[in-house]
């Protein structure tokens, strides 16, 4: 009887250890992935170029469909490049938002490192995002949900 209780206790302790080890491994992996994504943001010229264009070419403007159409129709290479970078930036923000809301990226790390950028980009692009969502409600839906979440914090 004592040996079966000891055996069961050993099995239970091993199972608990495996569960804790698995949880720690998952948590560490998610934090590492999040830090890699955040670090990549700083090391990739595409992100920096996109944010610079967003601030330089579109400073203080509320981005809406009319502005996007004007940029699309423009003969100015800088306008077309700004539009391309705007789309890159919005898609990057959606990518990050999906990762956070689906639990693949650590919400605390993203909130501390990207919250300001995500909020800034969303707030200046809100009219355009709203116009797109009138045609398809799923367009930038995660970005909008994460922005709403940050507003409530």
Secondary structure elements and pairings:
Layout: H1 2-43, H2 45-56, H3 65-73, H4 77-101, H5 107-135, H6 141-152
Q: Can you give the helix content as a percent range?
A: over 70%
Please, how many domains?
1
Please provide the count of β strands: 0
**What is the H/E string?**
HHHHHH
Briefly note the structural class of the backbone.
mainly alpha
The radius of gyration computed from the alpha-carbon positions, rounded to a whole number of angstroms, is 22 Å
How confident is the prediction overall: mean pLDDT? 83
Low-confidence stretches: none
Distance between the termini: 55 Å
Query: How much of the polypeptide forms β-strand, as a percent range?
Result: under 5%
Figure out the total of helices: 6
Give the overall shape, derived from the CA principal axes.
Answer: elongated
Largest sheet properties: none
């Amino acid at each position: 009887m004592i040996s079966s209780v000891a055996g069961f206790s050993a099995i239970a302790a091993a199972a608990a250890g495996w569960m804790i080890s698995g949880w720690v491994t998952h948590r560490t992996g998610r934090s590492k992935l999040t830090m890699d994504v955040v670090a990549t943001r700083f090391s990739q010229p595409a992100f920096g170029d996109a944010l610079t264009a967003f601030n330089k070419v579109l400073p203080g403007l509320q981005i809406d469909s009319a502005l996007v159409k004007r940029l699309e129709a423009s003969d100015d290479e800088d306008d077309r490049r700004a539009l391309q970078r705007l789309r890159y930036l919005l898609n990057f923000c959606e990518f990050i938002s999906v990762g956070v809301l689906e639990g693949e990226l650590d919400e605390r790390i993203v909130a501390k490192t990207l919250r300001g950028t995500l909020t800034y980009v969303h707030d200046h692009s809100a009219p355009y995002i709203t116009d797109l969502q009138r045609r398809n409600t799923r367009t930038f839906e995660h970005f909008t949900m994460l922005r709403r979440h940050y507003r409530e914090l």
